[in-house]
Amino acid sequence: MPEFLTVDILFVIAVIYFSPHILISFPLILLIIVSSTILLNFVGQKRRKELAEIKSIVYNIRKNIYSSPQEIILSGNLKNLQEEIRLMFEKSKNDIEYLKRLERMRTEFLANVSHELRTPIFAIQGYIETLQNGALNDPNVNTYFLEKANQHTTNLNNLLNDLIDISMIESGEMRMSFRYFNINEYMKNIVAELLPTAEDKGLELIYQPVNDKLQLFGDKNKLRQVMINLIQNSIKYTESGKVEVLVKEEAKFGEIIIRDTGIGIPKEDLDRIFERFYRVDKARSRAVGGTGLGLAIAKHIIEAHGSKIEVKSVVDEGSEFSFKLKK
Ligand SMILES: Nc1ncnc2c1ncn2[C@@H]1O[C@H](COP(=O)(O)OP(=O)(O)OP(=O)(O)O)[C@@H](O)[C@H]1O
Ligand SMILES: [Mg+2]
User: Fold this and answer.
1) For an engineered disulfide with 230, which of 17, 155, 198, 258 has Cβ 3.0 to 4.6 Å away?
2) Distance, CA of 222 to CA of 241 (rounded, Å)
3) Which ranges of the chain have pLDDT less than 70?
4) End position of a domain, from candidates 40, 61, 93
5) Is residue 114 domain-shared with residue 82, that is, in the same domain?
6) Domain containing 135: what range?
């Protein structure tokens, strides 16, 4: 019950109680009732107006009429509510934007995956058809076509493995197993494994050994994938010169650096190379067997180590990728 009505009732009782003559109190009671009704009506009208104002704001929000929270304006007593409604409007707008962005990413991802799958499948189909149409009996080309088809099968397999990794990472299923390991021995083995690939291209691949006792903390298997991708990238995107791998020992961590004298990466692409499927030069990357997932996976793995991959690059001079691991 509104406060003024309680006051009215109490007043009426008081008048009846204290009035010496009951007849005098009647006009007084009548006056009170009439004035209360007028007051009630006035307050009711005000509330109805406020409700209509709120209703129109809610309607406008529902119909997407506002483009910014500042357009939501309430009057008088409703000013208190204005800020809350503005905040609510902003939050729902951000939530919707986020969902739309996710949806866009999902569509893009699917389009990229289908495109990347189609490329090797079409190539394999093409080689098989050519062989079936007579090339099988031509000793000049048959083994070449078979080798090509086989190479595309390897690409397809690599792509599927990368996709499995990405989906494990994004669904939070990537299990890490952190241990201390001897970084010198570890790097020597990886570099030795990739040496033939570098030599095939006439590149020098150099590992500068570090303190033989240095132990770093990380997941050896996952880090191997990162190192291999970074070194392979340097080899793939370097036409002449060298690829250097070094470990710098600092007080609390070791920094792994992979440096090349390759084609470099334009400034405007530097921020994007860690995105899934992003390649600076798609045609060139595909020609060297890349799908643009390597750095996206590497970024996730290094972040799971509480660290970050850094990149510096100058077009036509070379690139340097680095990250730190705890000692
Ligand atoms: N050392 C480098 N020098 C020049 N460009 C590089 C280098 N490393 C990466 N890039 C550029 O960044 C892109 C993304 O690299 P990423 O490793 O993710 O993909 P990829 O090597 O093309 O394919 P994948 O690693 O999936 O086989 C490459 O396509 C290339 O354009
Ligand atoms: Mg790569």
Assistant:
1) 258
2) 28
3) 1-8, 11-12, 14-24, 284-286, 289
4) 93
5) no
6) 106-170
Q: How far apart are CA 257 and CA 194, in angstroms?
A: 16
Joined tokens for residue 48: 């109805």
Backbone φ and ψ for 89, nearest 5 degrees, come out as: -60, -45
Structural domain count, the chain: 3
Looking at the CA of residue 286, tell me the nearest atom of ligand 1. 22
- 295 and 228 in one domain? yes
Q: Ligand 1, atom 17: nearest CA belongs to which residue?
A: 294
How do residues 265-308 score in pLDDT, each as one tens digit? 999 999 999 999 898 987 766 677 678 899 999 999 999 999 99
**210-to-132, 198, 287 alpha-carbon distances in Å:** 55, 22, 35
Distance from the CA of 194 to the center of ligand 2, in angstroms?
Answer: 14
Per-residue pLDDT reduced to its tens digit, 192-244: 999 999 999 999 999 998 889 999 999 999 999 999 999 999 999 999 999 99
CB distance 257 to 248 below 8 Å: yes
**Residue list, CB under 5 A from ion ligand 2:** 229, 233, 294
How far does residue 180's CA lie from ligand 2's centre (Å)?
26
